[in-house]
Amino acid sequence: MAPPARRRRPRARTPPAPASRSVERPYHHGDLRRAVLEEALALIEEQGNASFTLREVARRIGVSHAAPYRHFADKRALMTELAVQASTGLAEQVSAALEQAGGELRARFLAAGYAYVRFALERPAHFHVMYSSEVDVEDPRVAAATSRSLGLLLGFIEEAQRAGAFPPGDPTALAVPIWAMHHGLATLAASGALSKAGPVELRRVVDDAHARLLDGLLLAAPGSSRA
Fold it and tell me: What is the pTM of this model?
């Protein structure tokens, strides 16, 4: 009698190799472009300058080094987009301040000046980018956004001239010292030089400086009275 056939043990199956995980993490909320812009701003705010690289941005948001180039040709293109955002945001903030201040000249002037300073405090990275040498100032979008901010100032000056409060002439000649005052105070405030005493004192200092400039402009108009 033949011996019973041995039952073969089923061959152990080699478990399939786990699928290799990509080293890339999902883009922020599925929006790579926004993630790149936000991380660039974070780096500028942390470092106080724009010395970062696109490779560094990609590493921090967890995507491949080439990923940011899907939306930005180079760092200059990225900085230019940030500058457009910055100038647009500044114009919106100043415009809102002018509207809320009402129709009185002095109140509008002080509100607009402080809005400029507040923008530098609340959005320091954007404030830095607006005047960065890495921005393509020839980009039409940059020119349009900058013109909007400047247009608000020129419009205010022209209104004051029509009312007889500011001296006649080219509004640009008056815009330069006003802009210089706005920007100088904003830069000092952003560096912490003016805000050590707290927000109330900062507002007082900024308003006092702008009021002195306004008084000088009003006095320059023959026969005009202070508004």
Answer: 0.81
